[in-house]
Amino acid sequence: MMRRTEIIVSSHSDFCFGVQRALNIAKEALKKNRIVYSVGPIIHNPQVVSEFSREGLKIINDVKEICALRAKGKSKKINLLIPSHGISPEVLRKNRIAFIDTTCPLVERVQRIVRDLSRKGYFIIIVGDKKHPEVRGLAGIAGKNFRVLKNKREAKAFNFPQGASAPAEKKLKRIALISQTTASVSNFKEILSEIAKKDFKELVSFNTICKNTIDRQSEAQRIARRVEAMIVIGGKNSANTSKLAKACRKINKNTCHIETREDLKTEFLKGKKSIGIATGASTPPYAIKEVVERIRRNDI
């Protein structure tokens, strides 16, 4: 008789608070309106976004698209939804656009910190991915005196701006470090360590990484040490899921990042007596059930 594969699912595998809140708000908006526009995907999970698209949620890439629709009189009322990772509030105010805000409260907190630091004249270093919507929003708030750093290598090579375009001397020497909410704790510490070696008069840092992200990574790594293989489920465009997979892979080389059960290869499952499962903050619960069923079918 074949021994069944042991499957250990992380206890941190539900939607995080911010994602669940955003989806609840979006559902209510769609009940009241036939069409709702979202600046980018409401969350970083293609399957969930597809479900909402079928209900009337339309994805646009830029606020300018809403301005164009309004100018052409395509709609008397345009329902614009701000996704969970937020965008720059300054962009909305500049274009005088009313909106339905699903921005995660933790992201809003980071936005307030950046706005305050900018007003006080700090040169702001944002730890994160400059292409991520959350980081782009923070950059819009920071103004001109900021830089986004992705890793230790970039931090080591970074030099504060010089010349006519550089901020005033007193600003140049006042440095503030903040983080994308879904960043890696170890990466944040490495960048902070590198920046601390540079010439400045004052350095302040804010660990603005979401606690759910930290707990999710810690639990996944604990499981990764116990099992023969690790499966991380979530959108390939999800920052926290990608970092989760990377963190697990450092401990267990037999780690794969998938979006759905269809991505799971039989060769990966073959011969594994124990498999761990962790998910990103925007992964729907049903995805876990489907992957577990796929593993069980492989046992037969």
Quick gist of this model?
The chain has 300 residues and is an alpha/beta fold.
Could you characterize what this model shows?
There is one protein chain. The chain is α/β, with parallel strands linked by helices and 300 residues long. It folds into 3 domains: 98 residues, Cobalt-precorrin-4 Transmethylase, domain 1 (3-Layer(aba) Sandwich); 87 residues, 3-Layer(aba) Sandwich (Rossmann fold); 100 residues, Cobalt-precorrin-4 Transmethylase, domain 1 (3-Layer(aba) Sandwich), CATH 3.40.1010. The strands form 3 sheets. It has a 4-stranded parallel beta sheet, sandwiched between helices. Strands 3-2-4-5 form a 4-stranded parallel beta sheet. Helix 9 links the parallel strand 8 and strand 9. It is flat.
Write the CATH homologous superfamily of the largest domain: 4-hydroxy-3-methylbut-2-enyl diphosphate reductase, catalytic domain
Distance between the termini: 10 Å
Average the pLDDT over all residues and give the rounded result: 89
Uncertain stretches:
none
From the alpha-carbon coordinates, what is the Rg to the nearest angstrom?
Answer: 21 Å
